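Sat 14:20. Reprocessing the chain from the morning session after the first attempt stalled halfway. Input below, unchanged.
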Amino acid sequence: MSNLYNSIGMGYAAHRRADPRITGQLIDLLNVPPGACVADIGAGTGTYSRALADRGFFVRAIEPSSVMKRQAKEHERVVWVAGVVEAIPLPDASMDAVVCILASHHFASIPTAIAEMHRICPQGPIAWFTFDPRLAQSPWFADYFPEIWSNAFPLFPPLDELARLFGDITGRKVYSHVFNLPPDLEDRFLAAYWQEPSAYLREDARQSMSAFAVADPESLRRRLERLSSDLSGGKWHERYGHIAAAVTVDWGYRFVVARYEEPDKELNTDG
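Finished this time. Tokens:
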């Protein structure tokens, strides 16, 4: 992950900002009091680390990329730690909770990552905001960028497999919760422009999405030309114009929470 973001990470902070709805749900699902110490694994430029700190938590932002770290804004309750998830440089049982926000597809080993999170947080909740393309409802993105969409399948394990891994490795109960995408996400990750397809034609928007950074340039050029042509000629709107009226969409984004006790409010489970 470090090498990739050292090469593509400049300007990342301009598009990847903490969305307050994601932050709010994450805090609700963690269900730990302000003042708790939370590890943010794969913290990137630290937008969610700062958002958690603003809500009263003490955060250890774990990030291997120096380029990403240099874009971070300082916060008195955020301490940065250079390191990878497979060997988190924190002591045993030093955290009250762990979060991981759209970073697991960069992990060399998901089972090792989960084991390391359990090591530093053996009693508190572990929460991931992740993605399972198998659960997405009719994503037009898969039509126009099929290679990028299909590449997500091996990177993101099925939700039920991820839940099984968490349960087997940590001994916790595992819950999942659907996150329907609003059209005005402040965190511009891969599916954020689901209602604004022309945004994918902008290089600056694509630069904040690792999936585009590793795509074959020639294939990507053809895919972008087709999208541009279909938008200008009306074909996209003929096929997918109904999306303009949608309030939210389910493209497979999920919170997965592993904890020893049931949360205060019941969660919808998938898989």
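Confidence is low (pLDDT under 50) at residues 1-9, 264-271.
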